[in-house]
């Protein structure tokens, strides 16, 4: 019973819950008479409302009601937006060098040896959805039919990896497996048709290969294999994190002229760091292995301390076009060598601090590859909910996940021109990839939104839905003070406030350009050298 002008007097009457009308205290029915009197804090209605709203989104950690409250098997806690801006999900709506430096500094303090490999994929049911390649990978696979947003997600992957860690601790290598400008998504929006090239201004990117020139492709494959060898020799018996965890007396002190033999006692021979790449421009349009590092750091020291062994993430678009190149495609003669180098990463990369992130539009061509088999993180891009997909495509992504009636889709592999016949795919292999037949891209009742997907971690067969963050959208117009009115169900009262729909500036710079510029300035002021180009 609450009394007083602002209801601060509280009398607890201990009742027995019996029928109404029996004797009680102060007219309380069903009470036995025992009372406790307390004085409660006076709070204003506004305070109470704020408190209630703050509590409303909280859910029991484990509860029988998990399903109702959006536990892992239940409905999403927050409905996914139709589109998401990567910079918002990163908390970098105004990407500034200072905000990036703060992030990198936090990473240096908190992260286990070897540095961060964190990527924000986009908006998930409980806020930004993040994957950690170091802890949950080491490798990731993105499956999706044409136009579902694979290239854009790879770009966002690269951008958010870069936002999380300094360029001297994280290096990115980009491969456009089908050549830039191919694919159904090549026609619209900023960066359309450019493949991963739009990411080359990120200071973390050392090398960008477009798989159209056999000579450069072979050079690339050889250089990548040499890099793995260099790392294996440098690390000896240790793994990447252990190596970084050990004291490095020459770190940053003498520019690496001491090969660190003492600190790596017991380690194998220490090999020279990669030489910086040449500074010649790419000889032709189709031959696009850019020497980015040399262009950006003209005048920088030619080598870096040997102890600077960054984590390396190799991001590959159109992996299927490398595995089964089309007849007559210019890169076809050398595609096998690139695939073999990538597969060496899939096999040995974990210990060497090298990660592989591949996107495939044709799981029937890539399901049997080591790169796909070793991908512990799997992303299926498909706009429709799982229950709206044909049975043979609604496949649990992870090999250890229970399988459904899924074997029909890829029961046989087409043999591509020039390829030896391949063995009949086992049912298990056919469930390794997550995507769908080409027809699955069309949702009933309209086009699916690109970027809608589901992340499958090793221990999560059901997967987590998300809307991929877009990073090549134009910087949105600045916010106005106009109120936004949105209908809200009462069950959603505790959700974070709805965001105003984005209105992009027609021809302004893209978010990616904004972020890359801020990253470059941050890298410069942090004196964070990046790896030399691979070739
Ligand atoms: N997360 C996203 N949000 C909004 N639009 C997106 C998103 N991802 C992709 N798009 C748009 O969808 C179209 C196709 O995207 P993208 O090229 O990344 O698809 P894709 O799966 O790589 O296609 P393809 O296999 O044909 O190369 C592009 O116009 C792109 O701008």
TrEMBL record:
Pro residues bias: start-end ranges: 273-284
Keyword GTP-binding: no
Signal peptide: none
Residue sites binding ATP per the record: 144-151
SMART domains: AAA
Family matches, as PROSITE patterns: FTSK (PS50901)
Low complexity: bias regions: 259-272, 393-415, 425-453
Residue segments, region Disordered: 242-286, 388-457
Keywords from the UniProt entry: ATP-binding, Nucleotide-binding
GO MF terms held by the record: ATP binding; DNA binding
Keyword flag Hydrolase: no
Biased composition (Basic and acidic residues): 242-251
Domain FtsK: 126-392
Protein name (record): FtsK domain-containing protein
Organism: Streptomyces violaceusniger
């Amino acid at each position: 019973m609450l009394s007083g002008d602002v209801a601060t007097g509280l009398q607890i009457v201990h009742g027995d819950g019996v029928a109404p009308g029996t004797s009680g205290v102060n007219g309380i029915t069903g009470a036995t008479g025992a009372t406790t009197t307390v004085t409660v804090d006076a709070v204003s209605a506004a305070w109470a409302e704020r408190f209630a709203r703050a509590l409303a989104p909280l859910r029991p950690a484990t509860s029988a009601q998990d399903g109702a409250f959006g536990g892992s098997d239940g409905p999403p806690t927050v409905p996914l937006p139709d589109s998401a801006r990567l910079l918002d999900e990163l908390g970098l709506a105004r990407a500034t060098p200072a905000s990036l430096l703060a992030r990198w500094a936090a990473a240096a303090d908190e992260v286990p040896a070897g540095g961060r490999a964190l990527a924000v994929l986009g908006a998930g049911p409980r806020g930004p959805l993040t994957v950690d390649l170091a802890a949950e990978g080491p490798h990731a696979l993105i499956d999706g039919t044409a136009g579902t947003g694979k290239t854009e997600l790879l770009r966002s992957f690269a951008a958010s990896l870069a936002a999380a860690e300094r360029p001297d601790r994280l290096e990115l290598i980009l491969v456009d497996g089908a050549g830039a400008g191919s694919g159904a998504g090549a026609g619209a929006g900023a960066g359309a048709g450019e493949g991963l090239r739009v990411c080359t201004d990120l200071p973390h990117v050392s090398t960008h290969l477009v798989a159209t020139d056999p000579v450069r492709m072979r050079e690339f494959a050889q250089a990548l294999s040499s890099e793995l060898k260099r790392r294996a020799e440098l690390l000896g018996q240790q793994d990447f994190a252990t190596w970084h965890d050990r004291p490095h007396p020459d770190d940053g002190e003498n520019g690496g002229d001491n090969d660190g033999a003492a600190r790596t006692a017991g380690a194998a021979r220490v090999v020279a760091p990669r030489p910086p790449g040449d500074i010649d421009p790419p000889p032709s349009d189709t031959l696009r292995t850019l020497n980015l590092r040399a262009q950006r750091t003209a005048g920088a020291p030619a080598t870096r301390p040997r102890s600077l062994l960054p984590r390396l993430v190799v991001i590959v678009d159109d992996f299927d076009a490398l595995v089964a190149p089309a007849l007559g495609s210019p890169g076809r003669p050398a595609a096998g060598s690139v695939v073999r180098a990538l597969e060496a990463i899939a096999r040995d990369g974990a210990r060497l601090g090298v990660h592989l992130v591949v996107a495939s539009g044709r799981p029937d061509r890539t399901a049997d590859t080591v790169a796909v088999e070793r991908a512990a993180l799997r992303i299926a891009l498909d706009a429709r909910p799982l229950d709206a997909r044909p049975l043979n495509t609604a496949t649990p992504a992870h090999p250890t996940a229970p399988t459904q009636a899924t074997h029909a889709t890829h029961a046989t592999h087409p043999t591509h021109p020039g390829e030896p016949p391949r063995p009949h795919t086992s049912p298990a292999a056919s469930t390794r990839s997550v995507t769908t037949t080409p027809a699955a891209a069309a949702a009933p009742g309209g086009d699916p939104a690109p970027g809608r997907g589901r992340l499958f971690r090793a221990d999560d067969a059901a997967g987590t839905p998300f809307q991929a963050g877009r990073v090549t959208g134009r910087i949105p117009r600045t916010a106005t003070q106009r109120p936004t009115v949105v209908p809200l169900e009462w069950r959603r009262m505790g959700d974070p406030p709805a965001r105003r729909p984005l209105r992009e500036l027609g021809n302004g710079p893209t978010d990616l350009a904004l972020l890359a510029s801020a990253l470059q300035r941050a890298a410069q002021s942090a004196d964070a050298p990046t790896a030399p180009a691979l070739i």
